[in-house]
Amino acid sequence: MNINFIFLEMTHLRYYAPLVTEARKRGLKCIFYTGASNKYNCPLLHLDELKKYAQENFVYIRPISEVQKAEGILFINEKTGVEFLDRINPSVKIIATTYQTDFIESFKAYIDKVDHVLMPSKFCAEYYNLTNKKNLYLGIPKYDVKLQSRDILKKYKLKKGKRALLMMPKGRDEAASNWWDISDYLNSLGYTTLFKTRGKDPIVNFYINTKNDFPKLAAQKGDVCFEDPSWFPHTTQELLEVSDVVINFGSTTIEECVMHDTPVINFDIKPAIRNGSKRPYRVTHEYLYNYDYCVQLKTDCSLGNFTAAIEYLTKTDLKKEFKKARKEHLFDHKNCCKKIFDVIL
């Protein structure tokens, strides 16, 4: 049997790669049907990286124009490539993987075209009114990844000591975030700040007072800037593994923090109206912030309050809180892909 993937964005590799690993264990042939997405993460812009991964993991690469030849099982990530599903042979079983909380808006675009949807949990489906008999509550594949701190530190040449991962706000919210002062707070407490943004929000777009070069200033302080140097294992997950604490601005990174047992200081700056309309869920995964591993602060908080939050989060055993949050809202993050294949096969 073949395991096929519609592969139009490099960001989907973090979800597909663990599935490939499990499929290969079972002696199954894996095929990526790829093509242009006209985005920063388009596979054709990163063809060397994709070919390297494919060669190392025995994955065949085929043009998306040949997807009608697919036989066996086909994975699609959210609605990306949904327009190709009408070409698929009816005998092919189609599985949709979900991406963070994108399913809130895209679920309706593919639910009638697939056989199953891999939802994070029954709780999430019920919370966002997306229960369906096609849902499989088996977890999310991207967390089936083994990460070694030693290897990550060497890979990114990170120095020893305390590290904080600061997830950069979207450009839309930058003015409300006060992120530069927060990084100064971290530096004053002996932390190296690892600034993380995405390729579609390039690091060079972030400036101080619209004049100074942010990456250069960060380097002068001994801090490090990241976009997406690694599609798999994904950079954010790697940095979570070597960070003592995360600074978040209401992003869905909260899910990754919970899955990686990394405590969070959150600054809630998400606007209710975005792109001209009011969102039904201003902050997605809002329930994950209601645990002791997360401290909510205002962006104008004092150094004293910030220090207290850091001290609490880094010196308290929070393992039970993370485990409780996963059990109540997400899933057990072990052997997810094995469970998925046991069911779909």
What does this molecule look like?
The protein has 345 residues and is of the alpha/beta class. 31% of the residues lie in helices and 19% in strands. It has helices spanning 13-25, 47-56, 103-110, 122-127, 149-155, 179-188, 214-220, 235-241, 253-259, 303-315, 319-329, 336-344; strands at 2-7, 29-34, 59-63, 73-77, 93-97, 116-118, 135-136, 162-167, 191-196, 207-208, 212-213, 224-226, 245-248, 264-267, 273-274, 277-278, 294-297. The strands form 4 sheets. A 7-stranded parallel sheet has the order 3-2-1-4-5-6-7. Helix 4 links the parallel strand 6 and strand 7 (135-136). The longest helix is centred in the first third of the chain and has 13 residues, at 13-25. The N and C termini lie close together (10 Å). The model has no long low-confidence stretch (mean pLDDT 93).
Secondary structure: elements and pairs:
Blueprint: E1 2-7, H1 13-25, E2 29-34, H2 47-56, E3 59-63, E4 73-77, E5 93-97, H3 103-110, E6 116-118, H4 122-127, E7 135-136, H5 149-155, E8 162-167, H6 179-188, E9 191-196, E10 207-208, E11 212-213, H7 214-220, E12 224-226, H8 235-241, E13 245-248, H9 253-259, E14 264-267, E15 273-274, E16 277-278, E17 294-297, H10 303-315, H11 319-329, H12 336-344
Parallel strand pairs: 1-2, 1-4, 2-3, 4-5, 5-6, 6-7, 8-9, 8-13, 9-12, 13-14, 14-17
Antiparallel strand pairs: 10-11, 15-16
Q: What's the overall average pLDDT, rounded?
A: 93
What percent of residues adopt helix (DSSP H or I)?
25-40%
Q: Percent of residues in beta strands? A: 15-25%
Tally of contiguous helical segments: 12
- Low-confidence stretches are none
Instruction: Classify the secondary structure makeup into a structural class.
Output: alpha/beta
Q: Give the overall shape.
A: globular
| Rg on CA atoms, Å | 20 Å
Largest sheet: 7 strands, parallel
User: How are strands sequenced across the largest beta sheet?
Assistant: 3-2-1-4-5-6-7
N-to-C order of helices and strands: EHEHEEEHEHEHEHEEEHEHEHEEEEHHH
Q: End-to-end distance, in Å?
A: 10 Å
